[in-house]
Amino acid sequence: MGPEPVTETKGLDIGPHPHTGLHTVTWLLEGAVLHRDSLGTEQLIRPGQLNLMTAGHGVAHAEEASDTYRGTLHGVQLWVAQPDTHRDGTPGFEHHAVLPRAEVDHSELTVLVGEFAGARSLARQDSPIVGADAAVRAGRTTWPLRPDFEYALLVLDGEISVGQHVVRPHALAAFGTGRAEVSVTVRDTARVLLLGGAPFTEPLIMWWNFVARTHDEIDAAVRAWQEHEERFGRVASSLARIPAPQPVWAPRG
After folding, report:
1. d(Cα 155, Cα 146) in Å, to the nearest integer?
2. pLDDT at residue 170, rounded to an integer
3. 68 and 135: one domain?
4. Which of 26, 86, 111, 238 sits 20 to 30 Å CA-CA off 79?
């Protein structure tokens, strides 16, 4: 998300829309966003805080900025697929105002989800994962990894070198399992998200905001949203409700 300006007439204003089968993990670097959902939640999030919404069988939410904040908005929202054991469960929402921190070499890390360098987040996880925001100073930093996890580094600000590769903002450096550590080199300063988890081996189909296993499941979710069924509830937002696009496999007439 961004960085982009938020004014009285323009900002991150996303009207009510549905989700299934995933967690949305929202993390801001700058600005503020008001979260409203069909569970009755109304929660403002600011930098250093974490919003985690669990969709399960179905939830809806809206994300509003222009009535809340003026200035620059910059952040990320990560979508984490739920495993079969949880993806049809009850939806939920968590706000974590304080998160654990760790220091490794030239970096200070905030652990969003999971455990890293001895610091453990209380945020929900339905499968083994980790997410940490690292502020990295100049020099070479080596982070410990779990060999059974696969990992990726997402640069938010600045640039880093991983081996012979230079990684800049909006680029993702992905690498597989079998590593006990990764080293990054920074000339000045950088902000990096370290993301990892056990390989997700279940088949996935994703269409719009729905994560499922079959086309029939997606079709049922689209129909439930379009027909205003109780599956997704109601969101108390002044923003316009967003209609679901027709799946590409659906017949057209």
Report:
1. 21
2. 85
3. no
4. 238
